[in-house]
Amino acid sequence: MNVLNCAINIKKYLINDNNDTNIDEDIKIIRRFLNHYKLEEFNIIKDNLKSVTNSEELSQLYQFGEYNPTEYYNKINRIWNPFIVFLEDQTYLYEIKSIKKKDIESDFYIYSEMEKLEDAFIKGDYAHVNTLSSSILQSTFKFILSEKKVDFKNNDKFPNLIKLVAVTLNLDPKLYTGHRKAQLIASKVNSIALALNDIRNEYSSSHGTDGKKTNITKHHAKLIVDSTKTLVNFYLGVLENKK
User: Fold this and answer.
1) What pLDDT does 13 receive?
2) Does pLDDT of 27 surpass 90?
3) Which residue ranges form the domains of the chain, and what is each CATH number?
4) Rounded Cα distance, 234 and 32, in Å
5) CA-CA distance, 30 to 9, in Å (whole number)?
């Protein structure tokens, strides 16, 4: 569920104050989002939701609308429309983290780094996005190898780590001889991971690049963030499936 949908659901609920829609989870997500990203221009929403835990309490907060419908609707629009437009204008859809703590019980570091990756994107530091992407993937590979008790050196380079993981998770294309489509998928997954690392070597902040001067554009940075999430979830998913 992304934050834009949650904001729209809440506004619809407030405009149609008598509906029975349950927006309790939407309220929690918006509150958590605003607490995390510190968007001062939307402090009024943050303050409104501070003491609200469910849809019933939200209705009570805006109860004055029952007595002055025009003023009520205008105020709802003034408060919520700019927030919704802000979310719509972002090329990156703010999402609740797709990697849950329970998926990586022994390596909370991956989860915390994923939050930093998203924060770097929001701040426009696309060079740091590259740095974190490669770092997160390497941490994921090391976590998988540790879980499977596969020997590796802590200073192993990215290509060596991904080779070990590919063999460990049976993602080595050579293992799919005679199954062309499966071989192609295994090859492409690993190629994308290697490509992300190559981009990091050229543009990342770890090589002294100023995030504001990098040639990586916003939509390319979005692709890096989304691809990193997808790959981490995929590799961890394969690991979980083999337990």
Assistant:
1) 86
2) no
3) 3-89 (no CATH), 101-241 (1.20.120)
4) 26
5) 11
Among 222, 2, 210, 164, residue whose Cα is nearest residue 98:
2
Residue 70, classed as helix, strand or coil, is helix
Longest dimension (CA), the chain: 72
Q: Which pLDDT band, with edges at 50, 70 and 90, does 137 fall under?
A: very high
Structure tokens at 35: 């607490």
**Cα 76 from Cα 10, distance rounded (Å):** 10
Q: Phi first, then psi: what are they for 140, rounded to 5°?
A: -65, -45
Q: Give SS3 for 95.
A: strand
Q: What is the pTM of this model?
A: 0.55
Q: Are 30 and 10 in contact (CB under 8 A)?
A: yes
197 within 8 A of 185, measured Cβ to Cβ: no
At residue 45, φ and ψ (nearest 5 deg) are -70, -45
Q: Which residue has the tokens 């927030």?
A: 83
> 3-state DSSP call for residue 31?
helix
Q: Report yes or no: 183 and 173 within 8 Å, Cβ to Cβ.
A: yes
